[in-house]
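Aim 2 progress update. The chain analyzed this quarter is reproduced below.
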Amino acid sequence: MSSIGIPGLILILILALVLFGPKKLPELGRAVGHTLKEFKNATRSLTSDEEDDDEAKRKELAAKDTSTAGKDTAAKAAVVTEKDAFDREKIEREIRERIERERIEKEVREKLEMERIQLEKEQQKA
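Predicted structure tokens:
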């Protein structure tokens, strides 16, 4: 595969500016960014089940290593605490993503409900 390169990227940006105009271009960029973010979150949620299984296996192995070893317990404890810190950060990130996803879903449900109510009012008037 060949890459686009700097001249190709500049050409694409100029074409986008001409086609969409300077007022719509930031809105278009935000929409594309939001779409990519949602896609990324959706793919993470699909793979999170597999990652949870992998994390459980890693924790079991770490527990076995620390329980069977008697010599390098201080070094292994440091490794375990680093793993715990990494796992904690990962869990916190997943929680933040889930909260954000739930907030977005709630907003969508509210908008759909509002539209349904408006549609019913319009049908009653007709």
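The first helix runs from residue 5 to 68. The chain has a mean pLDDT of 79. These observations will guide the mutagenesis experiments scheduled for the next reporting period.
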